Amino acid sequence: MLDHQLQAIVDQARTSGAPDLADLPLHAARAVYRQILAAADGPVADVEVHDIHERSADTNLTLRAYLPRAAGPHPVVVYLHGGGYVLGDIDGYDSVCRRLCADGGFVVASLAYRQPPEHAWPAPFEDALAGVRWVARHAGRIGADATRLALAGDSAGAVLATSVARRLRDAGGPALRGQALLYPPAAGNHPGDYPSRERHADGPTLTRRTMDFFSRHAFGPAGVAPDEDGAPLRAADLRGLPPTLLQLAAHDPLRDEGLAYAQALQRAGNAVTLVEYHGLAHGYLSMGGAVAAARLAQRQLADWLGMVLD
Fold first, then answer.
1. I want to staple 233 with a disulfide (CB 3.0 to 4.6 A). Which of 28, 186, 211, 294 is the partner?
2. Residue 2 has pLDDT above 90, yes or no
3. From CA 228, how far away is CA 188, in angstroms rounded?
4. In whole angstroms, what is the distance from residue 306 CA to residue 304 CA?
């Protein structure tokens, strides 16, 4: 059963005639997604905020850092936003990251990344990897302690986070204390035994048509990730990754591949904390202002990150 507060939001959207994002031109879908993110926002958390833009021959970085009001240096969480790789931005996730910073008492570094189709895959992954490495090198500039570093992301951002974690493992660092992954499209839209794709093909939030819409824009006409950076469930080696929190939503077409990824991480010997919210749907992280269970999930995310960063 869908959470009653979330059901009210879904019913209101359907009554208003809100379109499926897949039925919109990309520029319009981006505008609607910003409205969706703002619709169930909570109060703005009182944290310090700094925008950083660096452009040089080898750096193209946009980052928003959220700092607790208490004296630092603090642990740091690099956050990678969702939106199917093609929607979303650090402005749309501003409230989420403010709240995460306030709840957890650590620095949150929210990374922007280039988006398809204007910038072809693997541009989002390349920017995520470069941004995490920049934070590790320059943590002091944002009041952070690089020895206490974790990654987090929702949906497409969760895939970017875990793929960056794997790449850092292969490179010998920087070391991560943990990775927090919320409802990742871990199979990169490849076919597989994922019944939730059909069970929740019509939503209530993310639909299968929208999944395909995102994947075609992100990965080209084939609509599937061309490499394991876009499909971590297909990675050849998942050993030696940091402790993982994996949050899933029961009413989500991506639920089963997220579960499969948690199981694959466990089989590879990693420490995994798996939580499923039975009344929630894809995208609940941004609903903490209107859905009590989503607010609980936000707090759990902050608590888990605080634990591994302690």
1. 186
2. yes
3. 8
4. 5
217 is catalytic: no
Specify the length of the chain in residues: 310
Residue 303 to residue 310: CA distance in whole angstroms = 10
Which is the catalytic residue, given 190, 252, 256, 286?
252
**Is 56 an active-site residue?**
no
18 pLDDT band, cuts 50/70/90, is confident
Residue 122 has pLDDT above 90, yes or no: yes
Active-site hit among 95, 110, 155, 163: 155
d(CA 197, CA 207) in angstroms, rounded, equals 9
- What is the DSSP-derived secondary structure letter of residue 243? P
One-letter identity of residue 289:
G
Run of H or E residues at 29? helix 26-39
Residue 254, domain extent: 4-309
Given pLDDT bands bounded at 50, 70 and 90, which one contains residue 187?
very high
Query: Which domain CATH number covers 241?
Result: 3.40.50.1820
If one counts the domains in the chain, the total is 1
Report the pLDDT value the prediction gives residue 44, as an integer from 0 to 100.
84
Tokens of 243: 């402790």
Predicted local distance difference test score (pLDDT) of residue 294: 97
Report d(CA 262, CA 275) in Å as an integer.
10
Tokens representing 196 are 């939730």
| Rounded (5°) CA angle 202-277-66 | 100
Say yes or no to pLDDT of 72 above 90: no
Is 237 a catalytic site residue?
A: no
Q: DSSP 3-state assignment of 114?
A: coil
What pLDDT sits at residue 48? 96
